[in-house]
Amino acid sequence: MRKHFAVVFVCALFFASDGFAQDKVNVKFGSVSEKDFATTVYSIDSNANAVVIADVGSSAIEGNSKGWFSLVYKRYKRVHILNKNGYDIANVSIGLYSDGEDEEQLDKLKAVTYNLENGKVVETKLDVKANLFKDKINKNLVVKKFTFPNIKEGSIIEFEYTIISDYLQNLQPWEFQGGYPRLWSEYNLSLPEFFGYVFLTQGYKSYDIKTSKDRMESFRISDSRGVGATDRVQFSANVTDHRWVIKNVTALKEESFTSTIDNHISKLEFQLSEFRQPLTYRRIMHTWDKVADDMLKSESFALQISKDNGWLKDIIDPLKKNSPDKTALAQNIFEYVRDNFTCTDHSDLFLDQTLKNVVKTRNGTVAEINMLLTAMLKHEDIDASPVILSTRANGFTYSLYPLITQYNYVITRAVIGDKIFFLDASEPRLGFGYLPLRCYNGHARVINPEAEAIEINADAVNETKVTSAFVINDEKGNMIGSMQYLPGYYESFTLRNRINEKGKDELLKEIKKDFGVEVEVSNLVIDSLNKYNEPISIKYDFDIKAEMEDIIYLNPMFGEGIKENPFKSAVRNYPVEMPYAWDQTYNLQLEIPAGYVVDELPASVIVKLNEADEGLFEYRISKSGGSVAFRSRLRLSRAYFLPEEYEMLREFFNLVVKKHAEQIVFKKKP
Q1: Phi and psi at residue 95, in whole multiples of 5°?
Q2: Is 521 left (phi over 0), alpha (psi -120 to 50) or beta?
Q3: Over the range 360-382, which residues count as b (16 or more CB within 10 Å of their CB) and which as e?
Q4: Residue 660: its H or E element
Q5: What is the C-alpha to C-alpha distance for residues 421 and 95, in angstroms, rounded to an integer?
Q6: Model pLDDT, residue 516
């Protein structure tokens, strides 16, 4: 996790008060008057489609009648919907954990829509029995959802509910920020001293109120599940009441080059770490060494790759024929798995079937396919280990703590001699030693006895592209030319998939559409299309069909330029996360159209992004004799930029867009 955007701290027994005033939110369920409809534009965001007036949550731990403790989570929320573009906030989903048999209990749900009609407030209550729906997402997640009734522009909606949970590991997180501005966001936590939790704090917003107070509380536990008399226990313990409030929280909306907005929302999360006195001490959160050891011994993870697996011999023996060394054999094994198995889920950590069954069905999740790859490599005495990571869309992980629920992907690491290869056989047409871009998300963990921490960062990927165009006059005075396009590896990977899905004719249509002028394209040649370890190359001829007017305006980029600045917002409070560093060069050799002269050329410029030369924009153009030579180069040597660098990056791309739009002006000779 980037240290600038996440602070991780362990819950101590006592927290000192930060001394903020105990401000209270001035809203209450059911108390809606005509005055509450008066504001139609809020100063926090004059363009907001809806505004969250208050969002207040609380969690406490109470003794239950099952001989243990339960989490009791309460939430209240009020929203003012300003126009129809804010209607989506009236759709509410409540996630409930399930262990396959029991699930968390949703209780005391109330939801009301308020409208101002003829100067009076009219209530429409949700019929919970008829309009609360349940979806089972997977074996551990159930979602109950509803839509507020009678929604109109100007409606005020509010709901409250309670979740009772017997799963102490599921202390509810809290998001202070979201897709709509929030005037008041508050979370309260009452935590007894006999449970230890790790607190995980994320976001750039500071708290307006942050307090903690200690008090004594009496806990009562009973157990009436047996056939005999009910067992009862009562004791007192110290409880710390935590309170966090952030006021006037602006909306956080996803912009270009964002792995996932969830990485940057101001929020709190909690992980159960230990039981303390007067309970019997128990360590819940272990070290990475212990977690890795457990995963290596787990039948649902790595135990299957450490077995003898002699049955793999018949599969692997044919792959040895053209394998002069270990690297060649590893590549042959990788290609066999990649080309013969279909991935059914690209977000999975544990095995739901045996490796023998994966081979039998030729289907498996990303974890199952790459665990099969690991087992086959180990069978041939190649040093191979599974690696767990979180994909970019899944969010960052906290490297310090082994929070396995944060991980959703398995790849393979192979060490051959002094070389390390990271492999993912779940993706068709992906080369040996390459990972999908979704995997470049920072911290990952090798599941071996050492539990090695590694970094898989986008800054380490450099995507180089070179485009060369030649334009001449044919015997009839028409402008004709040829284009050679050498994309980087990952653009090649994308093009391979697109061509496989839609065919070359569709690619030809896209080339013509993006060219910038009316053009005929012919003689399309694509090299290395099936050589998945190499970038492809594309060549084609073109015939410009534009009318030859007295004055010709010609963009020398021929559709290859950057047409829009990807950084549109004036301010950005979270980092820019590009998928890779890049270096793009475009060269043009242009014969001046027959019967014309150059009337105007764009100015040449060379601009560095910063003093460290971590970015460069080069725009060179010159006329010599009957030709124009042009070169554009755009280089960014890293993929990750901090919020304080955003303005610099935005202005840099403003210049690129402006220059790439400029045209050469040709004038017909007198």
Answers
A1: -85, 135
A2: beta
A3: eeeebbbbbbbbbbbbbbbbbeb
A4: helix 646-660
A5: 39
A6: 74
363-364/383-389 β-pairing: unpaired
Ramachandran class of 154: left when φ > 0, alpha when ψ lies in -120 to 50, beta otherwise: left
CA dihedral 274, 279, 280, 282 (to 10 degrees): -10
Q: Please give the average per-residue pLDDT across 85-103, as a whole number.
A: 94
Residue 642: closest CA among 4, 175, 151? 4
Q: Where do we find the tokens 């008066």? A: 38
Same domain membership, residue 307 and residue 266: no
DSSP string, 484-509: EEE--HHHHHHHHHHHHHH-HHHHHH
What does the alpha-carbon distance between residue 90 and residue 79 come to, in Å, rounded to a whole number? 9
CB atoms within 10 A of CB 437: 19
Residue 15 has pLDDT above 50, yes or no: no
Element (H, E) at 376: helix 366-379
The tokens for 501 are: 């899905």
The 209-223 sheet, strands edge to edge: 120-125, 105-117, 156-165, 69-81, 50-63, 182-192, 231-249, 209-223
Give the distance, in angstroms, between the CA of residue 4 and the centroid of all CA atoms in the same chain: 18
Residues 515 and 546 in one domain: yes
Radius of gyration of the chain (CA): 31
> Helix, strand, coil: what percent of the chain each, to 5?
20, 40, 40
Asked if residue 421 and residue 327 are part of one domain, the reply reads yes
Contact 84, 114 (CB under 8 A): no
Mean pLDDT of the chain: 92
- Return the DSSP state at 522: E
Q: How many domains does the chain have?
A: 3
Which of the pair, 66 or 366, is modelled with greater confidence? 366
pTM score: 0.88
What the block records as the tokens of 462 is 């450099």
Contact (CB, 8 A) for 550 and 490 = no
- 31 lies in a domain? no
Examine residue 21 and state whether it is found in any structural domain, yes or no. no
CA pair distance 548, 596, nearest whole angstrom: 10
The string of pLDDT tens digits covering residues 261-304 is: 999 999 999 999 999 999 999 999 999 999 999 999 999 999 99
| Cα→Cα distances 647→257, 562, 573, 652, 653, Å | 15, 18, 11, 8, 10
Tell me the CB-side half-sphere exposure of residue 195, using CA atoms within 13 A.
24
Looking at 389, 421, 456, which one is the last position of a domain?
Answer: 456
> Can you read off the two tokens belonging to residue 586?
């475009």
Helix (H/G/I), strand (E/B), else coil: 209: strand
Question: Is residue 181 one of the residues assigned to a domain?
Answer: yes
> Domain containing 538 — which CATH number?
2.60.120.1130
Bond from prior residue into 278 cis (ω within 30 degrees of 0) = yes
Q: What is the pLDDT confidence band of residue 587, given thresholds at 50, 70 and 90? A: very high
Angle (CA) 605-490-336 rounded to 5° is: 165
pLDDT per residue over 594-627, tens digit each? 999 999 999 999 999 999 999 999 999 999 999 9
Phi, then psi, of 494 in degrees rounded to 5 = -65, -45
Angle, alpha carbons 246-110-221 (nearest 5°): 80
Cβ 72 vs Cβ 166: under 8 Å: no
Cβ atoms of residues 655 and 604 within 8 Å: no
Residue with token string 């710390």: 240
